[in-house]
Amino acid sequence: MRLEKVAVLGGGPGGLYAARLLKRSHPDAEVTVYEQGSPDTTFGFGVGLASRTQRNLRAADSSSLEDIVASSHGHEMSMRIGDNVARISHGELLAIARTTLLSVLQRHAEAAGVRLCFGERRSIDDLDADLIVAADGVNSATRTALAATIEPDIRTGTGLYLWCGTDFALPSAVFTPITTEHGTFVAHAYPYAPDRSTFLIETDERTWKRAGFDLTTEQIPAAESDHESLAYLEKAFGDTLQGHHLIGNRTRWLRFRTVTCRRWHAGNVVLLGDAAHTAHYSIGSGTKLAMEDAIALDQAIAEATTIEAALDEYEYRRRADVERLQSIAARSERWWDAFAERMDLPVDQLMINYMTRAGKVSLERFAASAPEVAKRGVADYAGVSPDAVPDAGLLEWVLDQPLERAERAYPDRLAPAALRDDPSTVVVELDIDSAWSAAADAVIAGLPPSGMIWLTGRSSRQEVLTRLDFAERVTWRSKATVIVDVPEEYRADAAAGLAGGRTHLVDLTAVATVVAGSPRERDSALS
Questions:
Q1: What would the pLDDT profile of 16-38 be if each residue is shown by its tens digit?
Q2: Among 5, 248, 256, 259, who pairs with 278 as Cys (CB 3.0-4.6 Å)?
Q3: Which residues contact 387 (CB under 8 A, 6 or more apart)?
Q4: Sheet strands side by side (includes 246-247)
Q5: Measured distance CA(350)–CA(26) in Å, rounded
Q6: Coil, strand, or helix at residue 365?
């Protein structure tokens, strides 16, 4: 298909990358990016680039990726609870200043022949083009204008967070909580330059209000930072900051908004990145999703004969991956919202709980990448020395560990079938969309404070992960022994749930539900 004129709304990473790729694929086309801000003005601090994202960008455009990597800052990852630290070596974790990333992408877009127009606010009604790419962010005016056709839905989270930075490079990325007189605040912090680090700090609504930040948020002018909150947090995280200050950039408390749309395009207008979908920051997904959208859009257009066919194919190719990542991100978001509940776990076991929180990383995969942390965490779970944890066969070893409970001792973590039929066992068939929903709260409120609680329900993997999340909530609020039905197919999830402290016992006798048909039919059946 031949394109003569392409307009891109939004000069963020997704818009710039899409413009470059499209211009390279259609060298005779006029490709223009319209960005309402100036080229040297941006908000935010560092942008993380995971190894898989780097591979995808390298395959699509090695030249720009090489410049991005050359300007990035490598780091490892750690979790700190008080004086206890769990560290993970990971040589492929990179971060780059958002300003630097934009500069690299602007330069490569112009080198390809893209025209960049800054300080120009345009709408789809102002543009005459074969293709209009709306990469205008989470507050997308294009999405609003096309709402009747694309049917957007925006869910606002319950927790609060703010972005800030500091003027030194942390030795590694760190997740660390601080409990003040008002409650617990958690920092996600990582270095992105030799003299800069990002600090993202979050908390729950009750703590936020007790600290008076609901009032400071109301009083801040639109273009200013919440300096009162920054001063408070700078003091609270003084040890992590090592005497350095927190830096704001229109920094204020926000609630994360998860954007979904029934359709991502209308006519010749297509949404890309945060304009079409968002996924919680705790999995570092915003820039990744936007730039990978750009890759898929360019490929779909190159292979199609009409704009309509191209945009249909783009959406089909990307939707499954995006929705999978949004599902993972939703679990991660809820995990962080309840972080304070887990602070009694030993730090290495907490790291297992964190890494397996959304079902993306299995216990065995984590052990392969961080064997020492995994060994210590599993040893904490089993109540043994790390030397007793095997190097191989970890999943079965976890399932084979004995359990001592007030009512009895168990030789391993597989629940005896007779327990389910015991009159004293409370069997709960869960039918909830989320372990953190109002429906889940109502079920928990009706459970006994002790005894045996057996959780069962539908057998899809998402339902299994929800049961494990729900089981963890029950362990926080009762002394009951909790058992979770997990189909044999998801044995690895059962082991991760046990080692991470989400449940006491599991039952592996259920059979998973399989949706038949072609990949496209399965996607339709599961949507």
A1: 999 999 999 999 999 999 999 88
A2: 259
A3: none
A4: 84-88, 77-81, 173-180, 183-193, 196-203, 160-166, 246-247
A5: 50
A6: helix
